[in-house]
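retry 2 of 3: previous attempt timed out while embedding D-MYO-inositol-1-phosphate. Reduced batch size to 1 and resubmitted. Inputs unchanged:
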Amino acid sequence: SPDKLAKIRDDLVCIARAAGEMMKAADPSISGFDSKRNTSDLVTETDRAIENMVCRRLQLTHPTINFLGEETFKEGQKLSDEPTFICDPIDGTLNFIHGFPNTAISLALAIAKKPVVGVVYNPFRDDLFTTVKGQGAYYTNADDIVRSLPIRPVLPPLSLHKSLVAIEWGNQRDGPNWDLRSSVAHRLLSSKAAGGAMVHSTRSSGSAALDFCYVAAGMMDAFWEGGCWAWDVAAGWCILEEAGGIVASANPGDWKPELEGRLYFAVRAAKRDEQRAVVEELWRLMAGR
Ligand code: IPD
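retry 2 succeeded.
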């Protein structure tokens, strides 16, 4: 019920704030980090300690809800239709290690593989983004001022040419996914594309979860990344949709992506047809047309 989901959101906010204290207290330059799949895919003791704390607290308060977390994920583990908490303890681990303050915990509840509650919290800027499906999306900043998203409700007409687009690089530096990422970035920025650059510019904040929230807040216009995992996008996805945005998969024609789809576009604009036009343009760009 809507009340139950709102209670879950409140629980997730409490947990996210506790995680934020752990992030601020940690010094990753002292505690060190490990590589997972390659030298850019990093994990710290704090990632693991936070996921442990989140999982324990959720199992105590919501024992019947499944848990999927970045650091405890096992190859082959699938997101089921059952209610599932999806946790990225530190989205933007590389930023965290370097002390670049664009790092967040991302917590979501998904039912039937669709996110219905989302909480993204960056403790270094005290930025909190929350939503419950059907109840609006909210941004609370360091001054505890709660604002309804989108923050800029009346947006100028959106076209890709006038957009600030978030793109992320992930951790692979070779293979087909790398080729796709670099060719899309090249085409977005190159002035050869259409007698001028395809977009105003691109930004890579280092946190997919926060990118979704920035698009939701109208600070950026679109987000594109090939190769995300469910924990990177679940909470931001829900926040963006509640703010009036859309999420599409990178497979042309796929307007109903699944959380396990891995390739995503997120777009927000005042009008549905503008959003769709931007996604369709991105689809053409990906295909090199
Ligand atoms: C990563 C960040 C990054 C994105 C990667 C993610 P992590 O999450 O969101 O921006 O490019 O695809 O895996 O590893 O820092 O939790």
